[in-house]
Amino acid sequence: MKKAKDYIVFPLDLPSERAARECVAMLSGHVGMFKVGLELFIGSGPDIIRHIRDVGSAKIFLDLKLHDIPETVCRSMERIADLGVDFATVHCGESQAMLEAAVRGSRGKVKILGVTVLTSVQHQDVAAAGFRDEFAADLSKLVVKRALMAKDAGCAGVICSGLEVRMIKEQAGTDFVAVTPGIRPAWEGMTADDQQRVTTPAQAIQNGSDYLVIGRPIRDADDPKAAAIRISEEILRKGEG
Ligand code: C5P
Fold it and tell me: Does the Cβ of 9 fall within 6 Å of ligand 1?
């Protein structure tokens, strides 16, 4: 059975392999998945992936958010598939062909998640980028449209804010995985930082999120391990109730 900690994806948004290893040692057993993003992957290369696999049972999410011509995406995803990670990302914004290329390159060895609309983006940004009024006025329409495109392409799921999960699950089915960043616990002094479409851990889970990406609320806490445990307790108390 899925435990409360299994919902937590901790992004190793750190500059070096050394710093990441310290975080992995501290949070192993308290989060269900570690996410390796561009900053760390550029700094450390694939060694950090092997390290996470060797030290514990946490899942691994390689979040490189690919965005290129289909041939390049497919070939890059083939290399990612060889690394033995559980999830990898590709942007939904460009074309269905790019998403299909990512799925083809995965060869069934890694689950592909489509990035719908970043949680740092709000409707003014979408309007300024030249999108149709219908999408600028209601970002969730754009998120759902991209999620359905990802589903058609064969992706396992999407990255979306906690505000859009319910609609995505209704239209794409409950098995279609929803990974939600932009999570902020309702703790005193908590700030949204650059995130715009924000939910608490309990709200996101009540809306149907399968995994929550929670970075700065844990990383920047005085005691990161205690913060992760506190979030698990909140998930247990409110999320399932
Ligand atoms: O919790 P915090 O805001 O620190 O989380 C930041 C992390 O969430 C980064 O690793 C960023 O790449 C990730 N993120 C994401 N998709 C978004 C927004 C943020 O994967 N739409």
Answer: no
